[in-house]
Amino acid sequence: MERQKQIGTWLADLWPGRNFTLTPASADASFRRYFRATLDDGTTRVVMDAPPANEDCRPWLHVQRLFQGAGAHVPEVLAQDLARGFLLLSDLGNTTYLQALDADNAVALYADAIAALVKIQLASQPGVLPDYDHALLRRELDLFPQWFLAEHHRIVLTESEKQSLEGVFQRILAVNLAEPKVFVHRDYHSRNLMRIASPASGNPGIIDFQDAVYGPISYDMASLLKDAYIEWDEDLALDWLVRYWEQARKAGLPVAADFGEFFRDYEWMGVQRHVKVLGIFARLYHRDGKDGYLKDLPLVARYLRKACERYSELSPLRKLLDRVEDKVTVLGYTMDAGDVGRRRDQ
Q1: Which of 70, 139, 240, 271 is packed most tightly, with the most Cβ within 10 A?
Q2: Domain named Aminoglycoside phosphotransferase: which ranges (predicted)?
Q3: What is the greatest pairwise CA distance in the chain?
């Protein structure tokens, strides 16, 4: 409540003589929180509350400028107080893609998301964002044995299993790091894309980009189409991937000239992401006490299993999933392939 009082005082200084209300808008997996300020004329603004002891607003501001310069629709910065960790932003609404998507609008909304991603990637240049390098990709992979296997499932790996998993991780990293590099949002999915009420304003609104990096070109498409929160029929997702690949080639982006090669890169990038996400979701529960992501574990594991079944090199991962699927997770969520999140078929 103390932070909220400070925000109220800050806004009162920004808007002398104006009446406004302040209500919670959302929170994310970090320490950031968001409030919606509604002025007396009905105008709304969003306040990002990022406690300086835990969060740094500067990476967010840096990426906001880059993505806005690329022509993507991101929140505008209207005021800032970095010492206290407050940003006043334009309001992109409260309807995420996850909330809005249905069989009637999915094709149009994903077309918009792909077009916006191409704009961001076209603005890419090295040395501007942190490199999504071997060390960072590897740290993410290591979350899987530490948090998902050991902490969440109490699975102790044998030396042979450790060596097999290490070999798989090295193969995954080799494929990931061989890809051309572009700006990577890193969480380009249905919860971070906003459906804008007025299409003329530009769909989608893009949020939660502060962890953007310079890395593999297929990463954000893997985030978008292998979404932890919503599943689409594989043929439909493949069609969207082809459409992206065609637009990227036409725009001059460095995607592989052969779609089959690009598809393999995309699949293996997805594997890296799924392994990471399983570890992160488990860590959010066991370390941070946040159980809201446990229900999403089965869908992520399902994506990972499908890739492992397509590529024999990933068989050690598949065998570990076999062990996991015989167990029941915390709060009763199972890893059975039939137990998934929202599925959408067309």
Answers
A1: 271
A2: 21-245
A3: 69
DSSP state of 51: -
| Radius of gyration over every alpha carbon of the chain, rounded to an integer in angstroms | 21
pLDDT recorded at residue 339: 41
The pLDDT, as a whole number, for residue 345 is: 47
Within the chain, all domains assigned CATH 3.90.1200.10 are found at 97-344
What is the pLDDT at residue 328?
Answer: 47
What the block records as the tokens of 219 is 């990463």
- CB-side neighbour CA atoms (13 Å) of 105: 14
Q: Please tell me the predicted confidence (pLDDT) of residue 340.
A: 38
Number of H helices, E strands in the chain: 13, 11
pTM score: 0.91
What pLDDT, on the 0 to 100 scale, is given for residue 128?
98
Provide CATH 3.30.200.20 ranges for the chain.
Answer: 2-90
Q: What is the CATH number of domain 97-344?
A: 3.90.1200.10
Of 302, 306, 307, the closest CA to residue 278 belongs to 302
* Whole-number pLDDT of residue 343: 44
**Tokens, residue 13:** 């200084």
3.40.109.10, 3.30.200.20, 3.30.565.10, 3.40.50.300: CATH of 2-90: 3.30.200.20
Amino acid identity, position 7: I
Residue 22 main-chain phi, psi, to 5 deg: -130, 120
Task: Please give the pLDDT value at position 198.
Answer: 73
Query: CB of 7 within 8 A of CB of 16?
Result: no
Rounded to whole angstroms, the Cα distance separating 270 from 249 reads: 21
Residue 172's identity, in one-letter code, is: I
Residues of the chain with pLDDT under 70: 27-30, 199-201, 326-346
Q: Is the peptide bond before 204 cis (omega within 30 degrees of 0)?
A: yes
- C-alpha–C-alpha distance, residues 103 and 191, integer Å: 18
Selection from 182, 203, 199 nearest residue 74 by Cα: 203
Strands 230-232 and 342-344: parallel
User: Phi and psi dihedrals of 220, rounded to 5?
Assistant: -70, -30
Instruction: Give the helix ranges, DSSP H, for 213-314.
Output: 219-225, 234-251, 259-286, 297-310
